[in-house]
Amino acid sequence: MNLSATLQSYQQRIEVVLERILPAEALLPERLHRAMRYSMLNGGKRMRPLLVYATGEALGVSLDCLDIPAAALECIHVYSLIHDDLPAMDDDTLRRGKPTCHCAFDEATAILAGDALQALAFHLLAASPELTTEPARRLQMIMQLSRAAGSQGMVGGQMLDLQAVGHILSEPELENMHIHKTGALIRASVLLGAYCAPAISPEQLERLDHYAKCLGLAFQVQDDILDVESETQVLGKTRGADAAANKPTYPSIIGMKAAKEKLQMLHQEALSALQDLALPTQELREIADFTVKRIF
């Protein structure tokens, strides 16, 4: 599925922003900064920045104001990928079609690169002069992102994922794990874009949050399906890694047919949440379509 010109322009924009906000390779310590840039500028869908941009623009926010929240989300996401790939976690050797950070550098450097990207995300939200929202909104963004990234969000979901290896989970248990591990950061992406708006109603915020919740879960369901049906060269990571690690997935818990039906149900629910918002949500709808039709 080809992305529209608008979403492609968002992708191009965030690449320029990320290049700018990352420390230069020549800056001490050089090896750490090379690892950060290697992992961050190594391609990817940039789905979380796209959600920041699409949400903010739907609410009338300028792209200049959205750059920093978009970059902060991607910093957190890439830090999580670096740490997920470590031997102590998923022990993956391939990410986005290239050697993972700990393989390209070493394990200690990868850990530190992830740590540094996490710190950079919060520094950007707290101190960047490019973010022109009022201080109370900055604080709201920092609180939202820290909650989404921490023990009640992504990191907690990763812990649940590690504990689930070799166990049979119920569908609600699997859903709870992924709402935290994958969904929390996707919801934060939409909310940070919304927080950049000078005025947003509680109803609009609730509908956008529900859209993001459905989208985050749909993203994970499709990930589980692709791990079975796609190929390593297309995925950019090792196909069948979840099955090899004896991890519970939607196809393994409820079957492939039911997993695909759940994916379509979540897709429709996400789109329904955008109805009656009286906002230009075409890009948010397109991101939902891409999520369920993507092949990588």
Walkthrough of the structure:
The chain has helices at 5-21, 30-40, 47-58, 63-84, 101-104, 107-127, 135-149, 154-164, 171-195, 202-229, 232-235, 241-244, 250-254, 256-274, 282-293, and strands spanning 94-95, 98-99. The protein has 296 residues and is mainly alpha-helical. The chain has a single domain, classed as Farnesyl Diphosphate Synthase. It has a two-stranded antiparallel sheet with strand order 1-2. Helix 7 (135-149) packs antiparallel against helix 9, helix 10 (202-229) runs antiparallel to helix 14 (256-274) and helix 10 packs parallel to helix 15.
Show the helix and strand layout.
Layout: H1 5-21, H2 30-40, H3 47-58, H4 63-84, E1 94-95, E2 98-99, H5 101-104, H6 107-127, H7 135-149, H8 154-164, H9 171-195, H10 202-229, H11 232-235, H12 241-244, H13 250-254, H14 256-274, H15 282-293
